[in-house]
Amino acid sequence: MRIGIVGGGQLGRMLALAAHPLGIRCTVLDPRANCCASDVAGLVQSEFDDVAAIERLASESDVVTFEFENVHLDALHTLKDSTLLPPLDALAAAQDRLTEKRLFRSLGIATPEFAAIDSIDALKDAIEPIGIPAVLKTRRMGYDGKGQFVIRDHAQIADAWSSLGGVPLILEGFVPFQRELSIIAARSRDGRIVVYPLTQTTHIDGILAESITPAAGVSDAMISEAHRAVSAVADTLNYVGVLALELFDCGDRLLANEFAPRVHNSGHWSIDGAACSQFENHIRAITGLPLGNTACLRPTAMLNCIGGVPPLEELAAIPNLRVHLYRKNPRPGRKVGHVTLSADSHEALERAIHPVRECIKQSAQH
Ligand code: AMP
Q: Which ligand 1 atom sits closest to the C-alpha of 142?
C-alpha cells in the first residue's frame, strides 16, 4: 500500500511516520527538495499546481491525500473520486470562509454573525448590524490569523478596506469568547465516525501556541453539541479522513469558527496522549482500515515551538516530555516543532507545564 500526500511539511512528515508501523509507505509532493517530510517519505518534487506531477503521484499511490487546504483545486480535478481522500468538495468548502460559514448554518451549527463583503460600501453597510468590534477577513488563503483586520472603531473602516480590499472578503462579529476549543473526528470509508475529546487551544497572534486535552470543565451538553456539529459536517460532505472543527466557547454556547479538512495542530497531542493518534486514524480512514481508539490516556498538553528550536538537552531533561522536531529552519512565526507533556491530573499538568513554557519561550520568536 502506498499513499501520496500533497504537501511535504510537518503534517506530511507526521502522517508518513504514522504510516510506517502499518507497513504503508508515503510519497509527498512538494516543490522543496529538502522539505521536512522528505526525511521519512518518497518525494515528487514539483509545484502544487503541476497536473502532470499530481498524476505521477497518483500513479505511484493507491490513494492521494493532502496536508494543507490551500491546494489548487484545478490540479486535483484530474484525480478520480476514489483516489482523492478527503473528497474535493470538502476541500472546496474549507477554502472559502463564506461557503464554510453558510455550510455550518445550513447544518444548524451556530456561527458568529457574518456578511459577504465585496466593496467599501458593503463593508460600511454590514458594520451597522454586525457591530464593532468586527473582524474583516479574506475569504480565501487565510491561515494562522493572516489576512485579518480587527475593526475596533468606525475610523478604521477605510484602513481595513485598504489593507485587505480587492479580494472577496467576509466580515464577522468579534466574539468575546471565554476560550477556544477544537474537536477532531475521523470518518471511515463506510461512514463510521470516531471523535477525540475536546481540546482547549490558546492562540498568540493568531497562531496556535498551546493546547490541553481533554479540555477541563466542558458540560455534557457542550460535548454533545460539538460531537453533533463535527459529525454533521463530516456526514454531509461524505468525508473520509480526519477533520478538525474550531469552536469559540462563549460560556453558554459554542460558535463554529472554521474547519480544517486535514490533520490539525490541535490534534498533535494525540501522538503521545491518545490510544491512536489523529495521524494514524487519517491513514486508517483513507486506506479503508477500521478506525482506532480516540481515548485520551492522560491529560496532555501540547506546546508549539515557534520561530526557534529550544535546546534539546534542556527539553530532554524534563520528565514526561516528548519532543517532536520537524527539521525546519527557524524564522519568526514559523512552527518548527512541538512538545507534549502528560500528567495524572489537570492540576499536575498545570504545575509541570511552567518550566516547559519557560524553556520554549527563550527561543520563541512570534
Ligand atoms: P482563523 O484564521 O479564523 O482561525 O483566526 C485565527 C484566530 O483569530 C482564532 O483562533 C481566534 O483567536 C481569532 N479570531 C478569528 N475570528 C474571530 C472572531 N470572529 N472573533 C474573535 N476572535 C476571532
A: 2
